[in-house]
Amino acid sequence: MQPNKLKILMIGPSESGKTHIANFISDSINIEEADTPRPTQGVRIVEFELSNLNVNGKTTNIDIELWDCSGDHRFESCWPALRLGVQGVILVCSPNTAQTASREMELFYNYFVSQPKLSAKQCVLFYNCTEDRDDQQEMVSLNLSHTFSKVSQVTINLKTGGSRLKIDFSNYITSILQSINKDN
């Protein structure tokens, strides 16, 4: 049976652009109107609906609870509450967080995906490029562990490929719903 609402966590190193992505996906802000980044204090929940998803041949609408989580480790004591009931995890990193990204992504994956026993299909890694160039090669240089071999990894650029991000996000939500339906 398909849920009416999905709880999705978005987490990654500080300053990787999580809030900007969350706002864009949920149509909360226009990319051109974005102002200076402000660190999220703990978590911020954005609720919105995705319409007309094709899940196993059926068109469906789904409410999304997108938990935009701070990557700052001083909020680590909140992590158990954040992951409670989670059905999907979006890991976010960017070129300006690439130095620590590999280790951080592993930590976040283990805590928010492996420990609550989510499948690799319930996780996606967004490599958030802010420059007007293709950073696919830089993403390869992240040196992610074998843990990520089954996790979808998507290079995104809100300035040049925002509509592509919305398609990628919808595909990700569809794969979660298919995974949940298969397990039931």
Automatic annotation (TrEMBL):
Tell me the protein's name. Answer: Intraflagellar transport protein 22 homolog
**What Gene3D superfamilies is this protein classified in?**
P-loop containing nucleotide triphosphate hydrolases
Q: Give the signal peptide range.
A: none
Q: Name one GO molecular function term.
A: GTP binding
Q: Which InterPro entries match?
A: P-loop_NTPase (IPR027417)
Q: Which domain of life is it from?
A: Eukaryota
Keyword annotations: GTP-binding, Nucleotide-binding
